[in-house]
Amino acid sequence: MGREWHNWSGSLRFTPREYATPPDEDAVRALVERARHTSTKLRPVGSGHSSSPLVRTDDVLVSLAGLPRTVRRHDDPHLATVGAGVPLGELGEALYEAGLAMDNLGDVDVQSIAGATATGTHGTGLAFGNLSTQVAGARLVSGTGEVLEISERQNRDLLPAVQLSLGALGVLTTLTLRLTPTYHLRRRNWCSSIAWTLDHLHQLQRQNRNMDFYWYPRTDTTQIRTLNLRGEEPEFSPAGEPRTTETGPSHRTIPRHRELRFDEIEYAIPSEAFHACFTEIRRRILDRHRTGVAWRVLVRTCAEDDIWLSPAYGRTTTTIACLQNNALPHEEYFKDVEAVFRQYDGRPHWGKKHSLTADGLRGVYPQWDRFQDVRRRLDPDEVFLTPDLAALLRDG
């Protein structure tokens, strides 16, 4: 029996029969082929930041942390191939040394690049998609043990599935990223009222490269955060001086270090429905959950994309995330707000808490059947389809 594994927040704990850390792609292939021939399940895992049970298995858990963490540049100066298991923080430093950067990042950088893209991790900004949109190609060990090269030139039809795959198609060993030259951002934080923030939200979103806000239920106030290229900050801003200001390379300025652990539910809402949805979420929290909610609500934006299982597929998206300290109960709170998210055609963040199964998910993803066709093609023996993943992906 392997050792107990737990995720970042501690809310997911299980003990796989085996915990493997393959050093290279050949070792990954051997693990997959063995699992196939012995009818056991295999799940790849990154850094374990996710709150959802995507990686839970009684059989073999395969860590990507042992794979090579190289960064290989291409003739195209905007492309680089990186090891699938490299954490985002480490990747940011390696890219910076090579004069490159990801065009956007999420709020934390402890995730592996494969785990972050496989679950649709995102930052904020009207012009920027989630991290999966930066994936231009990959190498994948499928459920048959075959190594597939996926790019604009090879197996192009698989790319919209592989960019955000939930680990259901195979084990990623490398990712090719579409990058930008390094850039520096100025980050500023303000405190404001919820009324002012909502009244000026569209203006703030349009005029800043990146903008989001936290709403604090116990005080009914907000913290507004903006990031802009140096010298390109808009004149319009919240009243008063910012509480904090810092400037630095993008990979050091966008993410934050988190000591306190939390669980989270987040749904992606069509942007045109945001105000109505947020108004109802705020009302429910104030009326029913204010005394028990110790954390804040985070609002961000994400550009439309064409990735089949992306929460931003086919629509400009605003995300609403409800956070709760991991030492406090969250079940009743998350269940209540999830009902509101679903009323507004919300799609859950794959890496965070939610209760939807395949029956509910099929109706909100227009390319659901195409993804399922690719999954069955690449994993015909369901090597990667654990009970938790089957509940998400298998109809009936």
Structural overview:
Residues 12-182 form the FAD-binding PCMH-type domain. InterPro entries: ALO_C (IPR007173), FAD-bd_PCMH (IPR016166), FAD-bd_PCMH-like_sf (IPR036318), FAD-bd_PCMH_sub1 (IPR016167), FAD-bd_PCMH_sub2 (IPR016169), FAD_lactone_oxidase-like (IPR010031), Oxid_FAD_bind_N (IPR006094), Vanillyl_alc_oxidase_C-sub2 (IPR016171). This protein has 396 residues and is α+β, with helices and mostly antiparallel strands. Among the domains are: 71-181, Uridine Diphospho-n-acetylenolpyruvylglucosamine Reductase, domain 3 (2-Layer Sandwich); 184-348, Alpha-Beta Plaits (2-Layer Sandwich), CATH 3.30.70.2520. It contains twelve helices and 20 strands. It has helices at residues 25-38, 88-97, 113-118, 159-162, 194-199, 201-207, 250-253, 274-289, 331-343, 358-362, 368-378, 387-393; strands spanning 5-6, 13-14, 18-20, 42-45, 60-63, 71-73, 79-83, 100-101, 135-142, 147-150, 170-178, 180-181, 184-193, 210-216, 221-229, 244-249, 262-270, 297-302, 317-325, 347-348. The strands form five sheets. An eight-stranded antiparallel sheet has the order 16-13-15-14-18-19-17-20. Strands 6-7-11-9-10 form a five-stranded antiparallel sheet. It has a three-stranded parallel sheet with strand order 3-5-4, covered by helices on one side. A hairpin with a 4-residue loop joins β14 (210-216) and β15. The protein is globular, with a radius of gyration of 21 Å. The two termini are 32 Å apart.
